[in-house]
Structures are given as structure tokens and as C-alpha cells.
Amino acid sequence: MDLIVARPEGLYCAAGDFYIDPWRPVGDAVITHAHSDHARIGHGHYLAHTDSEGTLRTRLGEITLQTLPYGETLERNGVKISLHPAGHVLGSAQVRVEHRGEVWVASGDYKTEADGTCAPFEPVPCDTFITESTFGLPIYRWPTQQALFAEINAWWQRNADEGRASVLFCYAFGKAQRILHGVDAGIGPRVVHGAVEPLNAVYRAAGVALPPTQRVTDPGVTPAMLKRALVLAPPSAQGTPWMRRFGNYSDAFASGWMQLRGTRRRRGVDRGFVMSDHADWPGLQSAIAGTGAGRIMVTHGSVAVLVRWLSEMGLQAEGFKTEYGDEDVADQAAPEPVGETGTA
Asked: pTM for the whole thing?
């Protein structure tokens, strides 16, 4: 029997009697990262990387959590489990599972270009690799970090010179911190939505360098200050009463989906920046090759396309049906702090 199988509750290792990122309540869950489509409430016991503790507790509240540093091994029913950097967000991990000489790696979500806000991705040698395929189409090719932030800085600077706020919609966990870490902090003040600041605090506590930020509701934030500010907000803030305080502003959206024509128009924003915390097409190829795995299990995204391409490359490939998805959609369900959107 396969070491890891798909069950209605999630990906299951029968030999060790635990699940990886289960979407229904289970007794023992190994969590790759704290995005809400992978880390859900209701499990009896959680295992995650040390740097995920802050984000998991911030998002899930009181849970029974055991943490593990990268590369350290624990054993459960004769199954060796270790966590390895995925490069996705703070604390994100690939799960290496070894039993009777057979090695499987479940990648969770991953990104292959280092961004300075989390441990960079490391390929883990294995027999079977479980990979995501969120952006598993050849069209998806990300700009370099340098090119991306040159675009964001130029947009922000132009708006600041014209006296209007720059409102950038992005995921509160991961994207917002990458943007803060990478932008030119000398252009103007950095103001954030109330859903972003608690996660900034977690990143700072983990040693990630972020410039100072203020909530929009902080006493020192004035209309004059906002005219030069970069404002980071989750997508759920778009079109809400919370936006009224910015007056004449320019808005933008940061997402890998901005690679597609028409996405910016559908989002109804002035600018779109191609930015993702997932691997692009070349990243998926290099990550899979780096594992040396002969068998690839493909989850969420362009599964059929990636399976076909891998099969043509001579690898044994098939899809795993999961309930993972776009963390933007999943995180829309997260409650907004009181007062941030103008409602309780």
C-alpha cells in the first residue's frame, strides 16, 4: 500500500496514523503552513515547524501544538517524520516521511525563489514527491524580485508625488510581509489594515526585518500622511467602508493571477503586480527535478496539465484530489478586526 493516500479527511499516512494538512477534523495533523486552506481548526494534535507557531496560534487560537525545527526527525509508529524549508511563507515546510526505506515528501505550497522573509526552498531527495500545481501552466513565469519591487516602488513614488495614497491589496499573511521587506521604505510611511499588523508582529518576533508600520486607525495617522503612504490591505477590504478614508487613491493588486489578461480589469484596480508565493512553471520543473523522485503525485491547480507533462518526461505521475485552493479565497472567511471595515 502507498505510504500516503488520499482519504475524505485529507492526505493520510496509515503506517504512522497521521494526516498532512487535513481539511476535516482528525486526531493527529502535520501542518505544512498556516494558510487557512492548509491549517484548519478542530484537530486533536498539531505538528508544525517552529516558525509556524506564531501564525498558527494567531489564526487558530488555543490548539495543542508541537513544533519541530527544520531537519530534526521524530518517529511515530516506526515512521520517521522531518520538516524541510518550502520557501512559501514564514514556517512553511515540506513533510518528509520515511518508512522501511521508502521516502515520500509532501511539499504543501512552495516557492523556489528566495525572498528574505522565510527559509528558502530546499529540494528533498525522495522516491515519491507530492507537489502542488497552483500555477502549473507554461504561461506562468514570475519576474525577479528586483524587477517586481522596481515596479511597485515606481508606482508608489508616482502616487506620493501626486499626493494620493497607494492602496495595495495582497494576502495578509505572506504577501504583505514580502512587500514590506522588499519596498523602498524611504518613499513614504507604511500603513496597514488591522488584519495585517498581528502577522507583521509574528514575522518580527521570528527575526524577519520589516520597516515600521502603523494601522490606519492609529492616532498618528493623518490625512496628510496618507497622501504619501503605501497602504497594505487584504482583498476582502476592497469596496468596503474602510476604503473611504483614503479619498483620492490609486489601488493595485499583487497576485500571480495578474499574469493573465483581464484579471486586473475584473479586480477593478488601477494596477496589477505579478507576485506569487507559489512556484511558477520553471520553478515547478526545477523543484520536481531536484527531488530525483520517479513518482510524482500532483495536487490542487493545473493537475491534468502537469501530470501530462511529467508523463511525457518519462516520470510516473498522477493526481491527488484535495480540498486545497487559493488562500485568497480561503482567507476571505477569516473575521476582520472590529472597527476595521466600519462594522463589528
From this structure: 0.93
